[in-house]
Amino acid sequence: MHPVLTPLSDQRIEQISPLLSPSLLRHELPCSPDVALTVARGRDRVTDVLDGRDDRLLVVVGPCSVHDPEAGLDYARRLAAHTSHLEDELVVVMRTYFEKPRTTVGWKGLINDPGLDGTFDVNRGLRTARRFLLDVLELGLPVGCEFLDPITPQFIADVVAWGSIGARTAASQVHRQLVSGLSMPVGIKNGTDGNVGDALDGIRAAAASHVFMGVNADGLAALVTTTGNPDAHVILRGGTVPNYSAADVAGTRERLRAAGLPERVVVDASHGNSDKDHVRQAGVVRDVAGRIAAGDRDVTGLMMESFLLPGRQDLGSDLDYGRSVTDACVGWDTTADLLDELAAAVRSRRTTT
């Protein structure tokens, strides 16, 4: 008798469910001409600031993660209205993150679990995320996303003006290859320990052509050949110690110069630079704003985690409207003041040169 053989594959797979195709989602929720103009204009403006052709400051600001589209859109309306009179000084991109990398386990973001209840209705999450992006773009506000799952960009990247690769994935070959084919400028963060070398290596790798396995617009396995992304840049987000000081920024620019890379540096006021204390974010922003006002041009952009209400809360049945469920955020009133101060700093810088 032949022994009964145990199946060799899928031994730890509980279920495989259908996933809608990127082309179907784009058909259901198409990009209008006005939205397409906002995306294209946003990408061009961000690139011009990063390359020094535009003396404005790039500001990427918004919730740590979008968990409530209603509150997120409320925030977007306030941001669009407030920054409409700051366009001469700031290029504002709303942070609209739907994927959350976790150190161990936890809620992975709106796309993965839109119900915040462990039901993992990813098809609903993809539809919700794309609808939200279109709603924000219809306000004339470009959007920025962190890309975590290498398949996700096929569903939403066509409407994203700026992208980021997080500290946990900065050294990932998969994500560097992904960036090489993305159509927008992408910031790559230094490692969680503060290692800027991961980001520099990532920029160099992303600028090159790659061939790798992925999916096409129909969701089918495909071989992807990219031309390389020349618009990747460093995001200093701190590590075991902050790295937003003038010396840190100058040192990073020197390392970029030595590597033959464009000297583009964006400072993240959150994470390691504020020790994840949302109150300290304002101090980081004001420190950089003071340097800008004095004539500093080394910092090309700033990032802030900001929502309607300050702080954070744990997931549960009775959530505060407009308060983050992931990292703690600066509240709206403080955010508005900081945006005004950054715009004033840019105006002051123009008088010093």
Automatic annotation (TrEMBL):
Enzyme class name = transferase
What does the record give as the reaction this protein catalyses? Answer: D-erythrose 4-phosphate + phosphoenolpyruvate + H2O = 7-phospho-2-dehydro-3-deoxy-D-arabino-heptonate + phosphate
Instruction: State the source organism's domain of life.
Output: Bacteria
Among the GO molecular function terms of this UniProt record, one is: 3-deoxy-7-phosphoheptulonate synthase activity
Keywords (A to Z) from UniProt: Amino-acid biosynthesis, Aromatic amino acid biosynthesis, Transferase
Pathway, per UniProt?
Answer: Metabolic intermediate biosynthesis; chorismate biosynthesis; chorismate from D-erythrose 4-phosphate and phosphoenolpyruvate: step 1/7
- List, alphabetically, the Pfam families matched: DAHP_synth_1
Give EC number(s), comma-separated.
Answer: 2.5.1.54
Signal peptide positions (record): none
GO annotation terms (biological process): amino acid biosynthetic process; aromatic amino acid family biosynthetic process; chorismate biosynthetic process
Provide the family line: Belongs to the class-I DAHP synthase family.
Job of this protein: Stereospecific condensation of phosphoenolpyruvate (PEP) and D-erythrose-4-phosphate (E4P) giving rise to 3-deoxy-D-arabino-heptulosonate-7-phosphate (DAHP).
| Name assigned to this protein | Phospho-2-dehydro-3-deoxyheptonate aldolase
Gene source species: Pseudonocardia endophytica
